[in-house]
């Protein structure tokens, strides 16, 4: 009997210790968490705004509007909320959906006059006895050029109070800024695609001329070599002018560069030496299409072609944790860095436009910290480096 009592006491002691530990953990979490009501309210507002911002940053469509209206209604504190453009209601959340036609017409008036509208119960007649709609606030979403293409409509279950009016106006202004950022992202993507097309046109004329000249020199003296060069040239141009995809892999880019260098060796012979040092684990890394070939071409054209004797082009790709570090270096004539910067900015002579193009595209995709780094000096050759993240949400090779 005494043994049973001892066992019971032991179990009780263990349970008490566990309860004390749980209480201590809860108190610790409470101290580390949001301590005050104001802090919690601030967190809730910011969290809801971030949830609404995500679909809006993809542009305003029926799908994105449907994802955003619920969070916008929470921000405004309305019983119902809709987003409408000049033609239709894009999405509605909450109560008052049976007033969609009236609210959409009011949104169209607000868009045509570029002014917000406050509606009362007399503006929204209804025969339904269970209708709670007593007013609404219609606020255009300002666009980047000042013109609005959509409006936010906040539904009230009472005469719209000044607080609801201000909340709707601020929410519309904030939503408009998110759409402006979406348009900016879209513009940057279109610019990047345009730059790729411009780069393709830019690198083709002189290379095509030089390649065909080199191939022609072998037609009679070495027909088999001429045939191989024609095949390499065909594969290079097929890759350069491919119709799909703004991104590629490092492996594909290096394969195209190998074809380019094969043709250039036919021009320069033993004067052109190439050294490759590529880590196998970085071959699948995705990067903007045609961002390495201009670097190699620049090394050959503006480094070795002006240098007497033998010249070396070194291409290195290293594994650097979350990034791939790539360098293209030549031991050519180099140039004054200040002159290089001036020519890169002006681009009048066309010598370094390819490098500027690659730099801008890298920054537009990966951010401003991932541009090209150019090291050069007269007589010291040129070294161009880039850092490419191994994984990036925008890059699909």
From TrEMBL:
InterPro entries: Bact_2-comp_sensor_kinase, HATPase_C_sf, HATPase_dom, Sig_transdc_His_kin_internal
Family annotation (Gene3D superfamilies): Histidine kinase-like ATPase, C-terminal domain
GO molecular function: phosphorelay sensor kinase activity
Major enzyme class: transferase
Keywords assigned by UniProt, alphabetized: Kinase, Transferase
A GO cellular-component term linked to this record: membrane
Histidine kinase/HSP90-like ATPase domain: residues covered: 283-392
SMART domains in UniProt: HATPase_c (SM00387)
Keyword Kinase: yes
Pfam families: HATPase_c, His_kinase
E.C. numbers: 2.7.13.3
Protein name (Swiss-Prot/TrEMBL): Two-component system LytT family sensor kinase
Organism this protein belongs to: Actinoplanes octamycinicus
């Amino acid at each position: 009997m005494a043994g049973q009592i001892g066992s019971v006491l032991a179990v009780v002691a263990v349970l008490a210790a566990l309860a004390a530990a749980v209480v201590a953990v809860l108190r610790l979490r409470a101290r580390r968490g949001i301590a005050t009501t104001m802090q919690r309210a601030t967190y809730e507002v910011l969290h809801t705004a971030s949830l609404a911002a995500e679909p809006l940053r993809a542009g305003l469509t029926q799908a994105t509007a449907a994802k955003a209206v619920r969070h916008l209604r929470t921000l405004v504190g309305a019983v119902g909320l809709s987003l409408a453009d000049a033609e239709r209601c894009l999405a509605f959340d909450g109560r008052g959906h049976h007033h969609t036609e009236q609210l959409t017409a009011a949104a169209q008036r607000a868009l045509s006059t570029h002014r917000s509208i406050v509606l009362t119960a007399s503006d929204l007649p209804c025969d339904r006895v269970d209708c709670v709609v007593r007013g609404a606030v219609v606020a255009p979403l300002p666009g980047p050029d000042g013109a609005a293409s959509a409006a936010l409509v906040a539904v009230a279950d009472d005469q719209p109070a000044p607080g609801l009016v201000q909340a709707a106006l601020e929410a519309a202004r904030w939503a408009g800024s998110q759409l402006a950022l979406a348009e900016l992202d879209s513009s940057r993507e279109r610019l990047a695609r345009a730059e790729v097309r411009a780069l393709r046109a830019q690198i083709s004329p002189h290379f095509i001329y030089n390649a065909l000249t080199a191939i022609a020199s072998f037609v009679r003296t070495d027909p088999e070599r001429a045939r191989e060069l024609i095949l390499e040239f065909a594969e290079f141009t097929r890759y350069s002018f491919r119709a799909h995809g703004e991104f590629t892999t490092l492996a594909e880019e290096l394969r195209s560069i190998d074809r380019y260098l094969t043709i250039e060796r036919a021009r320069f012979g033993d004067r052109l030496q190439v050294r490759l040092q590529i880590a196998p684990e970085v071959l699948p890394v995705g990067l903007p299409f045609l961002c390495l070939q201009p670097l190699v071409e620049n090394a050959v054209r503006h480094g070795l072609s002006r240098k007497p004797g033998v010249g070396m082009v070194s291409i290195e790709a290293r594994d650097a944790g979350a990034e791939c570090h790539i360098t293209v270096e030549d031991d050519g004539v180099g140039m004054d860095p200040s002159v290089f910067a001036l020519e890169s900015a002006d681009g009048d002579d066309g010598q370094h436009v390819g490098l500027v193009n690659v730099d801008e595209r890298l920054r537009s995709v990966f951010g401003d910290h991932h541009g090209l780094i150019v090291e050069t000096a007269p007589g010291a050759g040129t070294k161009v480096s880039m850092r490419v993240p191994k994984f990036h949400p925008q890059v699909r090779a």
